[in-house]
Write a structure and sequence with these properties.
Elements: E1 29-33, E2 39-47, H1 51-58, E3 71-77, E4 84-94, E5 99-112, E6 118-127, E7 129-140, E8 150-160, H2 166-190
Antiparallel strand pairs: 1-2, 2-8, 3-4, 4-5, 5-6, 6-7, 7-8
Helix pairs in contact: 1-2
């Protein structure tokens, strides 16, 4: 390792943020399915904000690392196909004795569906997983009793590289999702 103190500010690595510890979050449902080598993990909650507000927060990609606990970096990259966005994301999670980091370049397609439904579908182009794809779904919540409400769902399928067992990776993803989705909801509710 080298000492970064003497480097000019532009050459210094970004400071590391401490990942949020794992804990259940009220109002967030998380479930998992899949075989040993690949997993599908889904997190869902109701947001007390209109779908348009949730969508604006979710698709302000560059701002996400400022409030999503386990996301250290999210930057747009040039060269995306028409109608798509390329993003480089870096996430981390840590416990008392370990830290797990992963980076991926994602191709994102924003899709507008019927009845106010929107999806941000993504697939890994390159990165630290053998396979990674999924979608964010934002849709009006018809079960909401009062005021505008949105159902926000994150649905991810992943297959880790052989260096890490899928059980560990799926645990880390599943455990970090509630805090991440709650922060997106809180930002939309405050808008």
């Amino acid at each position: 390792a080298h000492d970064v103190v003497g480097l000019p500010p532009a050459d210094r690595p970004p400071p590391r943020r401490r990942a949020v510890p794992f804990r259940p979050e009220p109002g967030v449902k998380v479930w998992e399915q899949g075989r040993e080598e690949s997993k599908r993990i889904v997190a869902e909650m109701t947001v007390r904000a209109p779908p348009e507000a949730v969508w604006r927060v979710l698709t302000d990609y560059e701002a996400l690392p400022s409030f999503v606990p386990n996301l250290e970096r999210c930057e747009r990259l040039p060269g995306a196909p028409p109608g798509r966005t390329l993003l480089r994301q870096r996430g981390c999670s840590q416990g008392a004795l370990w830290r797990l980091e992963a980076e991926a370049v994602l191709e994102v397609e924003e899709v507008v569906g019927a009845m106010g439904r929107r999806e941000a579908r993504f697939a890994m182009v390159s990165g630290d997983f053998a396979e990674l794809s999924g979608r964010w779904v934002v849709e009006p919540d018809p079960a909401a009793a009062a005021g505008p409400a949105t159902r926000l769902r994150y649905d991810i399928s992943l297959k880790p590289r052989l260096s890490l067992p899928s059980t560990i990776v799926s645990y880390v993803v599943r455990a970090g999702l509630p805090a991440n989705i709650k922060e997106i909801a809180a930002r939309a509710e405050a808008a």
